[in-house]
From TrEMBL, chain A:
Species this protein is from: Azospirillum brasilense
A cellular-component GO term for this protein: outer membrane-bounded periplasmic space
Residue ranges constituting the Thioredoxin domain according to the UniProt record: 34-176
Main location: other
Subcellular location: Cell envelope
GO biological process: cytochrome complex assembly
Pfam families registered for this protein in UniProt: Redoxin
Gene3D superfamilies the UniProt entry points to: Glutaredoxin
Keywords, sorted A to Z: Cytochrome c-type biogenesis, Disulfide bond, Redox-active center
Name recorded for this polypeptide: Thiol:disulfide interchange protein
Keyword Membrane: no
PANTHER family: THIOL:DISULFIDE INTERCHANGE PROTEIN DSBE
Length: 178, 663
């Protein structure tokens, strides 16, 4: 019995070690959105000057849509931009943007320089709508089904891996489902 | 050429470490003196080789050798020299190099200063140090080699993360690592003792100075880190309960417990298996800190670049070191002889209470830090644990700890009179009540009730420690001159304890003051505006641009006045580093040593005419760091106690004709 007490630290450590090992498969940044499987919050955002269409609940219905929250001042946004462009141009995914706390002229200059893959962009000057969407920081990306429900959320810049393993299969699934 | 020499020295160090971890161990098992004798020269050789490697890496950084990928990734030709040198350890590979430098320096120090250790114990301690060295040298060479070249060499580097380009942070890692790694010596002693199957007071006396040295440097390292967070992150906070901070705080708490339980082993030959376990746990927590920071399994504001291969490697090291030593512990510890008995109310009893509370505190921080991971792994959902949890669980443990900290030194060994001890503390009690009354009067009852509890604790710790010292030198009971003589002749360890305990009180006062009574004003200000914070008026004079060596900055000029009297002119900056495209906040702080006025220049508003300015008034905040440095000083003073000095016990024993068996 007395020996068991001396064995206890080892057993506890083994438990912690197993948790560490399994922790490698988890991503602590993979934060679930409270809005998953819920309709996107009520909103309506004006377009960028010179653009025709803004972004609202109505625009999001009808097709599977990727909504990307971005800003010209955000470096990771620039990093993920080619990936989003490829998604829109090569994979035919409808991508719409929320321009987060940005100056209109900066955003336009940024899009001119880096290319504009967005079907439409809503300007969220004060970040109010982003708060309703539960945005932690830019960039963030949401995937919505044809009914305008949020089905998937990614925090931080998109990577080719996320696109291949999560977004494209999900897009396929959502398109065939309804 | 020189990076290759460094690389070569590192490989050679690995082979020396292999010899160091094997030969002396066999020698100790077979009683072969020559084989045991390998330990010392091997430890010194390993240190020299690692120093050569480290020097080579530093050289590559200093001369900006951009054919070395580590230099490209973390340096820039325009970077100031201080940060070229500190940039060596400001990245993952270099920090591991610093880690191994510390490890081998401690190993060699055991070899050099451990002349009066029994040969078999010394051989085993150094061999265990060698094993840790093998693990980390392999880790560096396989997963994190800092000497890799790039072809073609780029023209310039990517620069060091600007947040790290700061004097406070430049010296933070060396202290922190010296602390972390210093506990490896206590660990090696524990493992060696388990192999020998013997723990006695002499063992504790040999372990204690190493633990003290590690504890003191870790204290300084944590204090520097929190000071850096205070003025560099621009929020005016000094502790965030962030996983990385907790990773350094857990070894500190466990190390503090170890420091105190080793006293019981040394003086009373009790608590032996517990002390061994603490030594293992303390170093394991240091290893775990290294692991957590680099594995990416927890989110933190300041983590290193994350690479799962490295995480797995460190996890394997952790499993071998901690798992192996705990296995050895489970086999050997039951057969260790238990020592002296004591009553619950006694010096030993108070140290046991100290250990129980410190262990609980460690466990609290451990659970809070890893709870999100545990839940996630068990598929019970994602949570984050924040300061409210730690404040709610840590403070209730800390309060009795501080109360008992003062009473403990008044208790006699074996059996003590608690009422008698308390009656000798009446002066400290009166001083505490007076301090609380003053605090309540000055703040006019403002702030939470807990703040007054904090003030009471701080005063109790400070005046209680002084009272204990006064008691020892019989102040005011015998002539002052005699008291002075007594004070001079007191052992340094008594001085050290008084300094450390009293300074703990000072630090608590600082933590309480700034947590309870800080005032903050955050507003958009245009040049010409005035805002108030605390009793101060802060006038925004103008904004200019300043050019630094590798950054350009917007610098605000603020005039601080109090009741119309000019107090200070503060110049906070917002620096942009073009190479890394990062912006840092350089807060400007005016300190009166009683409080700080803190101004940070934030982002410009949309139209660019106003700036978000954060103003803080932090009462007593400098005391946090004054207290922490005092605690470190207490540790160092205690370290200079003559009974730890090389050869001192033996010389004394010889002089007294070997009459002191319990030395």
């Amino acid at each position: 019995m007395r020996r068991l007490i001396y064995l206890l630290p080892l057993l506890l450590f083994v438990g912690v070690g197993v948790a560490f090992l399994r922790g490698f498969d988890r991503d602590p940044r993979d934060i679930p959105s409270a809005l998953i499987d819920k309709p996107a919050p009520e909103f309506s955002l004006p377009p960028l000057p010179g653009h025709k269409e803004g972004l609202s609940n109505a625009t999001l219905k009808g097709d599977v849509t990727l909504v990307n929250v971005f800003a010209s001042w955000c470096i990771p946004c620039k990093a993920e931009h080619p990936i989003i462009t490829r998604l829109a141009r090569e994979q035919g995914v409808t991508v719409r943007g929320i321009n987060h706390k940005d100056k209109a002229e900066d955003a336009i200059a940024w899009l001119n320089r880096n290319g504009d893959p967005y079907a439409s962009i809503g300007v969220d000057l004060d970040g109010r709508v982003s708060i309703d969407w539960g945005v932690y920081g830019v960039p963030e990306t949401f995937l919505l089904d044809r009914q305008g429900r949020i089905r998937f959320k990614h925090v931080g810049p998109l990577t080719p891996q996320v696109v291949e393993e999560q977004i494209l299969p999900m897009v396929k699934h959502l398109r065939s489902a309804s | 050429m020189i990076p290759e020499l460094g690389h070569y020295a590192l490989v050679l160090a690995l082979f020396v470490a292999l010899v160091q971890s094997g030969v002396p161990l066999v020698g100790a098992a077979t009683g072969n003196a020559a084989w045991m004798g390998v330990a010392r020269p091997a430890a010194i050789a390993q240190m020299l080789l690692v120093l050569v490697a480290y020097g080579a890496l530093t050289w590559a950084h200093v001369v900006s050798d951009f054919s070395v990928s580590n230099v490209v990734a973390n340096s820039h030709s325009m970077k100031p020299m201080l940060y070229k040198v500190s940039g060596v350890w400001g990245n993952h590979e270099g920090s591991m190099m610093l880690w191994i430098v510390m490890l081998t320096v401690f190993g060699a120090a055991v070899g050099i200063f451990g002349r009066n250790l029994p040969p078999s114990l010394k051989a085993r301690v150094i061999a265990v140090q060698g094993m840790i060295g093998v693990g980390f040298l392999l880790f560096i060479l396989i997963t994190s080699n800092p000497f890799l070249r790039v072809v073609p060499a780029p023209l310039d580097g990517n620069d060091l993360n600007p947040l790290l380009q700061d004097p406070g942070l430049a010296f933070h890692p060396p202290f922190l690592y010296a602390g972390y790694v210093g506990f490896s010596v206590a660990f090696s002693f524990a493992v060696a003792a388990l192999i020998e199957g013997r723990v006695d007071p002499a063992w504790a006396r040999w372990v204690r100075p190493w633990t003290l040295a590690a504890w003191s440097t870790l204290t300084a390292g944590i204090a520097l880190g929190s000071w850096w967070a205070y003025y560099e992150l621009g929020w005016g906070g000094w502790w965030y309960w962030d996983p990385v901070e907790n990773a350094s705080f857990m070894p500190w708490l466990a190390g503090t417990a170890l420091l105190h339980s080793a006293i019981v082993v040394e003086k009373r030959d009790a608590l032996k298996t517990w002390t061994i376990l603490l030594a293992i746990i303390t170093f394991s927590l240091s290893l775990m800190g290294t692991f957590l920071v680099r594995s990416g399994i927890l989110t933190s504001v300041h983590a290193f670049a994350v690479d799962p291969a490295r995480g797995v490697f460190i996890l394997v090291l952790l499993a071998i070191a901690t798992g192996g030593s705990l296995l050895l512990y489970s086999v050997r510890a039951p057969s260790l002889k238990t020592g002296g008995l004591f009553a619950p109310v006694s010096r030993e009893g108070s140290l046991v209470l100290n250990n129980l509370l410190l262990s609980t505190a460690t466990a609290t921080v451990f659970i809070g830090t890893l709870y999100p991971l545990f839940l996630d792994v068990l598929d019970l959902g994602k949570v984050s644990v924040g300061p409210p949890f730690f404040n709610a669980t840590f403070i209730p443990v800390a309060i009795p700890m501080v109360i008992a900290m003062v009473v403990g030194p008044f208790l006699a060994w074996k059996r003590a009179d608690l009422l008698g001890a308390l009656s000798r503390l009446w002066t400290a009690g009166v001083a505490t009540v007076a301090c609380v009354a003053i605090a309540a009067y000055v703040t006019n009852g403002g702030g939470p009730l807990l703040a007054l509890v904090g003030v009471a604790l701080a005063a109790w710790a400070f005046f209680g420690s002084i009272a204990e010292f006064a008691e020892r030198i019989r102040l005011f009971r015998i002539p002052v001159k005699d008291s002075w003589n007594r004070a001079v002749n007191l052992p340094r360890s008594a001085w050290g304890m008084t300094i450390a305990h009293a300074c703990m009180g000072i630090a608590i006062a600082g933590m309480t003051g700034t947590s309870a009574w800080q005032s903050e004003t955050i507003k958009a200000m245009k040049p010409g505006d005035t805002a108030t914070v605390g009793a101060y008026a802060v006038h925004f004079d103008r904004v200019g641009t300043v050019q630094g060596p590798n950054y350009s900055a917007e610098q605000g000029v603020f005039t601080v006045t109090r009741n119309g009297n000019h107090i200070a002119t503060l110049t906070p900056q917002r620096r942009s580093y073009p190479v890394t495209r990062m912006t840092t906040t350089e807060a400007a702080i005016h300190t009166t040593w009683l409080s700080d006025v803190y101004v940070a220049l934030g982002d410009p508003t949309q139209n660019g005419t106003a700036w978000t300015v954060r103003l803080y008034h932090h009462p007593l905040v400098p005391w946090i760091w004054i207290g922490s440095l005092g605690m470190m000083l207490g540790g160092l003073v205690s370290l200079s106690d003559r009974r730890f000095r090389v050869g001192a016990p033996e010389r004394r024993r010889a002089a007294k004709g070997n009459l002191q068996p319990a030395e």
